[in-house]
Structure formats: C-alpha cells, structure tokens
Structure prediction request, 709 residues.
Amino acid sequence: MSKKPSNEFQSVASRRGFLKAATVATAASSFGVLTMSDAQAASASFSAEYDIVVVGSGCAGLTSALFSRWHGNSVVVLEKAGALGGTTFKSAFWYWVPNNAPMRAAGIEDPKPDFLKYVARLTRPQFYDPDHPRFGLTQWEYEMCEAIYDSASPAAELLAEKGALPYRHVPFATDYFAELPEDKAKSGRVLTPKDNSPSMAIGGQVAVGTLSSAARRDGISFKTGHRVQRVILNTKGETIGVEALKDDDSVVRIRARKAVIFGSGGFTHDPELRSNFLNVPVYGGCAAFTNEGDLIRISSSLGVQLRNMNHAWLCPITFEKAMARDGSMSGMFSVAGDSMIFVDKRGKRVVNEKLNYNELCQKLFEWDGSKVEYPHLILFSIWDQRSQDHSATNDYGSAIVPPGADDRHVIKSDTLEGLSEQISLRLSKYAGVIGHMHLDSNFMSNLRETITRFNGFATAGKDDDFHRGERSSDVLFNGAVKKEPNHKNPTMWPISTSGPYYAALVGGGTLDTKGGPKTNTHGQILDIHDKPVPGLYGVGNCVASASGGAYWAGGGTLGPMIAFAYRAANKAHVEPKRS
Amino acid sequence: MSYVKTSLMLFCFLGGVSITRYALSAELSSDALKALAVKHCSQCHTLGQGEGPGNGPNLFGIIGKKAGSAQGFTYSPGFLAVMSGKTWDPELFDRWLTDTQALAPGTGMVYFQDDRKIRKQLIKFFQLLR
Prediction:
C-alpha cells in the first residue's frame, strides 16, 4: 500500500469554527469525557477526521495503526511526546510469540493447553490446578491468554510480510521459568527485529524505525506533541473523537468515524497513581516520561472496570539515575559481572543477583513487620576491577558501564572502607525518600565475611545460599564475563582482595505498570456491565493485563501487545461509521 | 504562554544541573524553550554540560560541533554514512529535525517534525545551550 487515502486529513473547521472550538476546549482541558449532541458534533468543531484515531506511538500504537490501515482505514497517530516510540523505543524489543512460525518450521511443539498451563501457573500460582478446566485462571484471564496464543503469531507474520517488522528468531532465549514442568516449549518463543544488535539490546530503536517507516509509507498520519485528555462521545455513548492539548497549549478536537484505540502506556511516572495503586515502593522506572496514566484519568468518567492495578512489570533500576530523572535510564535487565554481588545495609547478600528482573525486584520490596521497614529498599551492587574491565556495557541497564558512559551512579574507591564511606554519603543525600536508611555499624565486617563466603562459592561453582547460575535465565542474562579455564559457574568469580572497588545503589522500579481499564479479547474497553464502550479500544500497558504479577518470559510485554493490536484493529475495522 | 520582548540574561537549569548563563533573545521564554526541548529530546539525550550520553549523544553546545563527535557515544552506521564530516549549523539541524530518516536512512534516531515553528524554537534553544 503506498497511496495515501484521499480522506486522510479532512479539514472540516472554518477558521472561525476552529477558534470557537479551541476556546471551548481550552476552558476545559482536563481529563475525562466530553459528550456532544449531534448538532454540536455536526458543527465545525473538529480540526480533522479519520476512520481510526490511535493514541500513542509505541508498539501498541504503531501496530494498532498499521493493522487498521491495512484494512483500508484512514488513520492518525497522536503522540503526546515530541518524538515517537514511547517506552518501546528504549526497549530491547524481544517479543514473545507462542507457537510462532519459526517454531512450527523447526518442529518445536508448543501445544495450546501447555502454553495455558504455563501462564496460569505463573499468573495465579495460588489457584493453579492442572485439572481445572481453566487451570485456575478466571474466565477473563483464560480468554485473554487464549487470545495471545491465537493471535500473536498471525500478527507477527503480517507485520513481517508487510515489511513493517522483519524479525529474526531467537531459538536460544529460554522462558524465565523454563525449569517448571508446565513449560513444554522452554525456548523458541522469542522473536526480535531482524536488524537488532548482536546483543539484541537496541531492538526498540530498530522496531520504531521500521514500524514508523512502514506507517508513513502506507499513509498513516502522525501528530506529535498532542496529549489526548478527553474522549468525545455522542449522546448515545458512542466514541466519536478525542480532544488533545498541543505543545503550544492550544486544544484540538479530532474526529474518529469508527474508533479510538489507546496505546498510551501505563502510569509509571504519575507518583499519585503509583502510590495509590501499586503496593510496592517503586522509584519510577524506565517507561517513557509521558506514561502518566492519562487513560486511567480519562476513563474515570466512563464507568470502566479497573483491573490488575496492583501489579507492574518490575525491574531493579540504578537508583540515582531514577532520582536524576535520566530519560535514557533502562531497567537493570542484565545484572552484569561475575565478580559482583548485591548486599543489603548489613553488608549481607540477600538474593540471587542473576534472578530475572521481575522476581529480583520483589526482594527490594520485602517488608519487615517487626522493624516496620523495607530492609532491602536500597541494595548495593559491589564489583571489582575484573568485572569493570570485562563486563562493562551500555546494554540492558547494567550498573557496570564502560568509560565515557553516563556513570553518575557509580561509586569508586581503592578500598572497601572508602567504598562504604561513599555509599553512606550517597544514602544521606536521599534520606528523605529512602526512610533514612543508613548502613549498619557492622556493615564493613559483614561485607568482608560476605565476600569471603561468596568467593568460596565462586571457586566451587556452586552458590549454596542463593543458587546463582542454576537457572537457565540466570545464564541468559549473565552478560559478558572474562572467560577462565576453570570457570565452573559463569555467573560467579571471586571478588578481588585488593581494590579498586565499585558500587552502585539499586532501587526498585518498573518497565511500566500493567493495570488499567478491563478490555475484552478484542481490546474493547468494557463498562461496569461488561459491555464495550462503543468505539473505544485499549492495547498494551494502558489497559489491564491478564498476567497478574507474572513476567512469563522475555518479550512477555510486547508479544501480547501485538496480538491485541491485531485483534483490536480487526474489530475496529468493522465498527459502523458514525456520522 | 509568556513572551520575552527583549534580550535577557538568565541562569538556566536543566535536569537539576546548573549549566550556564546565556543570553536569551527569542520569542519564547527560556522556561518555555527548555520545556519544549525537554519534551522533544530528553527521553534520549542529556542536555547539561559534561553529562554522559543516553540513548543518544549529549547535546550541550551541539550547534557548531562536528556531527558524530560526542564522546562515549556509539553512532549508528546509518548516521555516520551521511553525517560524518558535517558541522551542526542551524540549516543542517533544521533538515535533521524535519526528518532524520530522510536525511540519514537507518540512523538510530526516529524523529520528524513538520511544524516549522517548533523546529525553529528547538534550534533557538540549542543555539543558546552553550
């Protein structure tokens, strides 16, 4: 498809009408819903008109727009930020696609019942029952997970076939819980953009590049600097457009003949929503700054059902980059280094440092009821020159970064004593947001004992305390380490007895949140009676995920996202045109 | 939106880091220019003097610099193939902001801005950011 549709951008506003509309809207540029009578809607109050209006330009938005366009609809993408891509741009863009085409071609079996058992076991572990007809999932969760299995692969294939997202298969990428007996297809479900880097860390840049190029090639319009704040309904409660605030503080209304599809991300960067919905003390995260829960605020007026608001896609983060609001900050998806440990304020290890990020992060949120504190709210990553020399990387949010990189979070000292003094200074800087946490008086003696004990494990190749390196995903994200002839466990090597030493403060964060309005399997946002709000759709992290607190595998965010974008676009296409 | 009619001397703070004192002669206030630049650029770029690269290179003092010369940042082959040897002047910067992929196909940065006024404001901001 190369020809732009003739009705791609219909200016329907006279200057007078536009000014009138802008004036009205400026006075009410808050979040929510605007209901218009037919007469009002028919008047010159819309600046443009499309079949489908997409809100957001990350994976959910771009793929929803493309699938919609390929049905022949006119489509506009409204992006709140100045640049495209949202959180997706920063991601590695692995996408988890069950029973994908390369798996089928290679004869790797991934039967649907086994897939559903695996996701059920992780999503609702307390209710999981292999003999239950839905394996312990609710009806809604079960249907949503079925939809992922059914539609992720057709979506991936169509995106590839149209040249919007050529991919390569990553056969060695194991699921994060491949050791579970329920996981029959332990690896093979991950795809990544064909031109992703060898370390597969810049897939988001590649994907936003190819998806947006295809979108422009195929005649999709883009409007950046448009923050959608209101959904416009007619008097029958049907969605007929949106109202957006522009960079210059003017307000525009854009009409949607068939549907509005939100792909506007979660609420990672809205502290009020975060502290009122998440039950863990996160310090922001690596979602795009524009992910401020706009759809949550808009949909409050629609009588929707919010679901899964208490969960997020969790990841450790370099605490000081989060405090500095570093826009490029990535979650710590790969905890780099072999001669590296995490210790708590006592100087003791508390976790397998190579545990996959969603689960590792839970340790930071552990609550000590007797002391009424989060004892691991901040952990300290400590490494030596060996890991600095051989494991430093700019990929996957590593705390160990190469020379020339942004290293504001790195503490360096020739001695462990010096390191501990500097850690204390940094903690005091953030006292007001970390519950006045400080190092225990016996931190140094404990740290020395911890290193001695860890070094014994590293030499033996077996971590008797936390079993580091025993899970396949521990090794998957180990990162580069110096190879040794007697490296029994590639995730561990003894920490040097002499400096210099390095440290970084580690806090808890999110890739993004995963709660929002409940949708059906077609991405239609549901009202309190489980009926779709006509013409209103949501895909991705702006709506409720059926994954509970689970992170099924690498790409467990983006794979389901393209599945629901595909389904939402298919359904939106057959919506009646609302004149 | 506030407008500044005459040149002013201001201290500018970006991301909590004091960066410079500069002369401002623009239609928009320094705060408005900064807010626009942060909104459009800071997801990937640091703007303060001496700050390291992010997903893109640090942009302090970019106007007048050689393209592809930021320390500690690995440029994409698509960028280097077209931009190496060029100097960031307002004209080149304007073409870049208009459509990065059209100017340097395959470059890591995906940005296109068809609003000339916004491009002009961003260029003004970066001319002053030194």
User: Anything to note?
Assistant: Confidence is low (pLDDT under 50) at residues 1-26 of chain B. Helices of chain B lie at 30-41, 77-83, 90-98, 100-103, 116-128. Chain B has one domain: 8-128. The radius of gyration of chain B is 14 Å.
